[in-house]
């Protein structure tokens, strides 16, 4: 039955039925799609939608969001571009959440959940959030900044039904306030509490009592100031935990406290996810061996204090691991052990322990090949390595055709094949050819236009591509733009792509979320042309060196290369909160 | 309208693969770097590379800023050094010798019996250890402060200790 006939049939049903059917559509994409079918479906969908995902906070504005989805309860917002993580976006660029909270508060939206990534969150925003939404239940902040423990205190004090406070990798000013003590005695609804990224001490007595009165607590991640003695007491009170982030994990292994901890751990039959070990004594690790056998997720990437041999001993117990994040201190040998032990492994991330080349602990292509051979369910990898070869990547591609995400970062951004000295084009080419479901790819090492030819040809499902120090000419970028039909985010730095590539298919950018290009060959003139022809794009030029250099250089001419350009599709035109150093063309 | 100039006027020259393109690609850093011969340092210090998010840089990587106090007997004040700047013991000792203008610390690494200076460090457990016994990474990770003692002082402390032990019997 074609869509037209189907639609006619569906229109015989009253709206309540349509709404009920739509309830089964949980993915944003599906709901977005049904809303495009016809006016009545659009209408039913928008009044029944409770969860909204906005991948770029500047693509729309709060007013439009509220107008379209009056029943909004759960909002996810993302702010800064991904390369902001690597200090490529100056402070003050934008991504403020306050206007969103303010607008929702004024409109009487019954907000229950807010998830933010790479946004600027002020204490005022948190205070307004806490006081405006009586049913507020869940706050998740990932890689955000701008707030202090004062804002957290407001959340703790005012959100009576708070279930989740999850702070992941945020830059928080810890004013050593008593935010944790602000959870009132009446707060018993916590299911998830993660404050691992906070630097300051918390009131451990208040913490223990909070844990004791929240019987539904499933996920608890402590910061490094919480000592092992307190962890032990917490585990006794909350043996039902399924996700634990230890704070400090160092103590005298012969002490009574430690023995008590071991016993408490043995009693925690539900722990499936473990992280933390922010300060660790390797001799204390055996305490967690009893729970290792049931773990599905293990994150030791913030534990540089665990040496390679201890890490390996630990891994041997983790037979059911599906997600593993570690440091490259594990070494190729350790990865071999992972390959032999962790047959359920789906996602592996190996982070660099040594950013400045002081030691020699990095992993190589050997570790990656071992993993690919030993772990048949592997579908997602982030791998920082000293060196790579085409042969290894070809082998990996053969062993693992199921990759959804493949991110490789060589510590030297343009290192060639370690054996043949050739570019790594063939290796990545094999990956995209073999992995038909690949949606995210990051390439590195010495790369020519050829790798982009392969990507354009084979990476049909690719949605996000990260490029650095790669390619020879505009052709490289053109292959990608022409070939990757599903591309949503493209981020490029230090690569020789210029106006010809940028302007070849301007309409393409309306099908994408965003494009980032820094230290490339595009000029001001090229960007201006693009901005002129495409009214639905914001083309931002970010120039941090503007201040103080202005005098002699009047208005720079169109032939000047642009340092940083960020463009994105938007329904609402140039943003009004852009700082001085951002020029929207 | 903001004045826009593409600030760093860097030139990108690329060779063929395998050719001499190495230095030219690091446009940002090549402008900042003014020290000659530090190739190895250069390749690791391109802005934003390796692409590790700033939170992780500050909190996760083992060899991040490891400032420790260094005292040398006879010197009027202490200094602070960042251990993550050094690759190994010789590297560290060379830096110390230069910093304090005293030479001979390195001798202790080769011949602990006869050197004039004895480099020791306080580890995580609060114990004072002789420099050089454990692998460099392990040392750097556990070192809380450094002290370069004069051998004569070390001998005196040892003598007192032995005397103390002797009188107990």
TrEMBL record, chain A:
<dbReference type="InterPro" id="IPR041567">
    <property type="entry name" value="COI1_F-box"/>
</dbReference>
<keyword id="KW-0927">Auxin signaling pathway</keyword>
<dbReference type="GO" id="GO:0009734">
    <property type="term" value="P:auxin-activated signaling pathway"/>
</dbReference>
<dbReference type="InterPro" id="IPR006553">
    <property type="entry name" value="Leu-rich_rpt_Cys-con_subtyp"/>
</dbReference>
<feature type="domain" description="F-box">
    <location>
        <begin position="13"/>
        <end position="54"/>
    </location>
</feature>
<dbReference type="GO" id="GO:0031146">
    <property type="term" value="P:SCF-dependent proteasomal ubiquitin-dependent protein catabolic process"/>
</dbReference>
<dbReference type="GO" id="GO:0010011">
    <property type="term" value="F:auxin binding"/>
</dbReference>
<comment type="pathway">
    <text>Protein modification; protein ubiquitination.</text>
</comment>
<dbReference type="InterPro" id="IPR001611">
    <property type="entry name" value="Leu-rich_rpt"/>
</dbReference>
<keyword id="KW-0217">Developmental protein</keyword>
<dbReference type="Pfam" id="PF13516">
    <property type="entry name" value="LRR_6"/>
</dbReference>
<dbReference type="GO" id="GO:0019005">
    <property type="term" value="C:SCF ubiquitin ligase complex"/>
</dbReference>
<dbReference type="Pfam" id="PF18791">
    <property type="entry name" value="Transp_inhibit"/>
</dbReference>
<dbReference type="InterPro" id="IPR032675">
    <property type="entry name" value="LRR_dom_sf"/>
</dbReference>
<dbReference type="GO" id="GO:0005634">
    <property type="term" value="C:nucleus"/>
</dbReference>
<keyword id="KW-0539">Nucleus</keyword>
<dbReference type="GO" id="GO:0010152">
    <property type="term" value="P:pollen maturation"/>
</dbReference>
<protein>
    <recommendedName>
        <fullName>F-box domain-containing protein</fullName>
    </recommendedName>
</protein>
<dbReference type="Pfam" id="PF18511">
    <property type="entry name" value="F-box_5"/>
</dbReference>
<keyword id="KW-0833">Ubl conjugation pathway</keyword>
<dbReference type="InterPro" id="IPR041101">
    <property type="entry name" value="Transp_inhibit"/>
</dbReference>
<dbReference type="InterPro" id="IPR001810">
    <property type="entry name" value="F-box_dom"/>
</dbReference>
From TrEMBL, chain B:
<dbReference type="InterPro" id="IPR053793">
    <property type="entry name" value="PB1-like"/>
</dbReference>
<keyword id="KW-0805">Transcription regulation</keyword>
<keyword id="KW-0804">Transcription</keyword>
<keyword id="KW-0927">Auxin signaling pathway</keyword>
<protein>
    <recommendedName>
        <fullName>Auxin-responsive protein</fullName>
    </recommendedName>
</protein>
<dbReference type="GO" id="GO:0005634">
    <property type="term" value="C:nucleus"/>
</dbReference>
<feature type="domain" description="PB1">
    <location>
        <begin position="65"/>
        <end position="151"/>
    </location>
</feature>
<dbReference type="InterPro" id="IPR003311">
    <property type="entry name" value="AUX_IAA"/>
</dbReference>
<keyword id="KW-0539">Nucleus</keyword>
<dbReference type="GO" id="GO:0006355">
    <property type="term" value="P:regulation of DNA-templated transcription"/>
</dbReference>
<dbReference type="InterPro" id="IPR033389">
    <property type="entry name" value="AUX/IAA_dom"/>
</dbReference>
<dbReference type="GO" id="GO:0009734">
    <property type="term" value="P:auxin-activated signaling pathway"/>
</dbReference>
<comment type="subunit">
    <text>Homodimers and heterodimers.</text>
</comment>
<dbReference type="Pfam" id="PF02309">
    <property type="entry name" value="AUX_IAA"/>
</dbReference>
<keyword id="KW-0678">Repressor</keyword>
<comment type="similarity">
    <text>Belongs to the Aux/IAA family.</text>
</comment>
<comment type="function">
    <text>Aux/IAA proteins are short-lived transcriptional factors that function as repressors of early auxin response genes at low auxin concentrations.</text>
</comment>
